[in-house]
Specification:
The chain has 8 helices and 8 strands; from the N terminus they run αβαβααβαβββββααα. By secondary structure, the chain is of the alpha/beta class. The strands form 2 sheets. It has a 6-stranded parallel beta sheet with strand order 2-1-3-4-6-8, sandwiched between helices. It has a two-stranded parallel ribbon with strand order 5-7. Helix 5 links the parallel strand 3 and strand 4. Helix 2 packs parallel to helix 8 and helix 3 packs across helix 5. The protein starts with 9 loop residues before the first helix and ends in a 13-residue tail after the last helix.
Length: about 230
């Protein structure tokens, strides 16, 4: 399967100290935001561990979209006056990713930010499952780039194709399909019922090949300078 990372631009590498890159992740199902068994939480921990400044990483339960929204507004409010200026909005550098229902919330949050004229650098959906009343297939025009990773087998499977409201404003990086029928991932420490009843949906969540690509896309939007690696 061919896969190409998103292109890097100068605006993504040079960031004001007043505008950290904001990375928001949503876990799927009824998973807790701090459950380190799950790949979205592990990814956030790796990025947070390396970036001690310039990048703010938060993970939320998929039912906490409004909390995530308010946290973004708070982080963008550089002068702490309780409202966002046009300059603060233009300075936004936001990345949103999510698994399963979290993928649906990823698009919903991006759409809410678009209504406030706040740009989003990148959205990533992994086996996105639309919640009732939500449309996780159409990416709003305030999103610069969007990627979709999915599998199409089993009882529960993800959105197979995302598309842009405005192709001139949003680049669809790709709709990347993964198949698990011929291989079995152990998905250690995941609940047995997930591994039995939603096997393929669970396997795409624990597949390092998927999350390495997700991580590569996210890191392509993070600043080069300011990375602090802890010694081991």
């Amino acid at each position: 399967m061919a896969w190409f990372p998103a292109s890097d631009g100068p605006s993504e590498k040079t960031l004001s100290a007043k505008a950290p890159v904001i990375v928001v992740g949503f876990v799927g199902g009824f998973v807790r935001h701090d459950n380190a068994v799950h790949s979205p939480v592990q990814l956030a921990a790796r990025i947070r561990d390396e970036y001690r400044s310039g990048v703010q990483v938060e993970v939320f339960e998929n039912r906490r979209r409004e909390q995530a929204h308010q946290e973004i507004l708070k982080l963008l409010d550089a002068n702490h006056d309780g409202k966002l200026s046009e300059e603060e909005k233009r300075g936004a550098r936001i990345i949103i990713y999510g698994m399963s229902w979290g993928g649906s919330e990823t698009v919903a949050l991006a759409r809410e930010l678009g209504a406030q004229k706040i740009p989003v650098l990148l959205t990533i959906q992994v086996d996105s499952v639309a919640k009732m009343g939500q449309n996780d297939a159409v990416i709003p025009a305030n999103v610069a780039e969007a990627a979709n990773f999915y599998q199409a087998d089993g009882l529960l499977h993800g959105q197979t194709e995302i598309r842009a409201v405005d192709a001139a404003s949003t680049r669809i990086v790709g709709n990347f399909r993964f198949e698990y029928g011929a291989k079995t991932l152990k998905c250690e420490n995941y609940p047995w019922y997930d591994r039995v009843f939603t096997r393929y949906h669970t396997e795409i969540e624990c597949d390092p090949a998927v999350w390495n690509q997700v991580e590569s896309l996210i890191r392509g939007k993070l600043p080069v300078a300011g990375i602090t690696r802890t010694s081991r």
